[in-house]
Every structure is written in structure tokens, then in C-alpha cells.
Amino acid sequence: MNIIIDPGAGFCPGVQHSIQLAEDLLQKQTDLYSLGSLIHNASEIARLQQMGMKIIEHPDLPDLKKPATILLRAHGEPPQTYDQLKKRGYSLIDATCPIVRKSQNKVRSYSHQDYQVVFVGKKNHPEAIAMAGYCRNPLIVIEKAEDLEQVKWFPKIVVLAQTTISPEFFDSILKAMKSRGIHFMVENTICKYIKKRNKEIAHLVSESEVVIVVGGRNSSNTAVLYQQCSSLNQRSYWIHEPIELKREWFNKVQQVGITGGTSTPRWMLEKVKGEIEKLVSS
Description:
Distance between the termini: 13 Å
Largest sheet: 4 strands, parallel
Oligomer: single chain
CATH architecture of the largest domain: 3-Layer(aba) Sandwich
CATH topology of the largest domain: Cobalt-precorrin-4 Transmethylase, domain 1
Strand content: 15-25%
Number of helices: 9
Strand order of the largest sheet: 1-12-10-11
Mean pLDDT: 93
Number of strands: 12
Helix content: 40-55%
Number of domains: 3
CATH class of the largest domain: Alpha Beta
């Protein structure tokens, strides 16, 4: 059996930057706290926790003793978070993805020009929650076309995308808006890394009889990746840990492709490959 790990899989640049910041600080024995889960991958978070990183949520900040260093994750935070942390005297390390930061700046600029800002993505995703803080008017978050029916539209509208959503899904929402006679501007803020990866994935899936998608269950990017893979190959399986692999998936299979979301580390993909090799040789 030939087992191929997607050469383009692994951390995206934004996630890699936040992980590198965390590792550098931990190696300096910094008392480091991640505000919320740094990335949507429990295995990688567990590795960083073993190095000494702690996770703190917003409600627990008033009880955090100083001195402490707080790392803001790649998804970003609203402006009020920065203000609160500075007032409390914590050291602040900002790991917001540069692409997310560009989107935040666009939201701020358009909202101050009296545009209604429409954000296509998940309502409870950290990126959407942070983005709302940069919008002077309430941010309109669209998860599905049906959400459009509940919006009272402004004369001026601009539509942006969560950086990790599927380009096809974004286009479908734009088409749904046009079909309703809504006039709007578009800022396609989907990460270029995601767009490039989508093209590469199609080749891996077409060459593989079975595709294993590795990533956290709460990872929006992994969900999009799995949908793409399963639409091209019904024998696609989404796992978080190698223990979820099943021997019967690989019966009479000549080639397996392994890929992962942007928050899935390469070491996890290698681990999955090793477990498949054990399963098929047993």
C-alpha cells in the first residue's frame, strides 16, 4: 500500500506564527497564558500545555495574578480585549494572523463609512466574534442563505468572508444575495493559503482510493476540507486522533492520501501514517 501525506498540509503561516511565539516564550520560562484555545487542535494544545502553557478564558481574567503574559490567538480579539488587558497590567503578545488583521481593518474602515458590513462565516467562531468588535454597527453574520431573509438592508452594503471558509460557499451566498435583488460590494477576504490548498487537495483526492482528513472537530477549516474531500471521494474519513482509524477502511486499497486542516501539525499526520501502516500489516 502506498500512503501519501499531502505535501501542502500542516500549519498555515498564521497558525505557525502563533505556535512559534508560544514555543519561544515557553523556552524562556515565561508564565504564559493563551486567551482561549490557541488553535483548534487538542493534540497540539496538549503538547504546548506540557511545555507549560496555560489556557485562560475571558471570565477568569479578573482572578489572574500578575505578572503574567497573555498570548492572543491567530483568530484575533475585539479592541475591548486589548483595552481590558492593558488596564489590568498584563504583558500582551498579539498573535493575530496578518490576514485576519487586514479583514479587521477593512471592517473598521467600511463601518465608519456607514456601510452595513456582512460577514459570511460562523456566528460563534472566534474570528467572527473578534470581527464584530471592529464594526460600528452590528456585524451581520451569515451562516446560510436562509439568514438573508432576516436582515433589514442598508443602502450601502459590503460583504466579507471568514478567512477559512470555502470559496464555493462564499460564492453561493453572493449569488443568493444577487438573486434577492440586493446590491453590494465584495471584499473577498478568504485566505490565499486556503484558496491555493483547495486546488492542491483535488489532485491528492483524485489519486487516492481512501482519504484521511485529520483535524479538530471544532476546526472550521478542517470541516471545509472534509466537505471538499468527501464531495470528490466518498471514501473520505475525518479523524482527530489515530485511534479513530478502522482496519476495514483499508481493505484491498492500493493508495491512501492523508491531509489535514491548517491547525493540524505535520507530526500528527506522520503519526496517522504510522498507525495505518500498523493496521494493514497486522
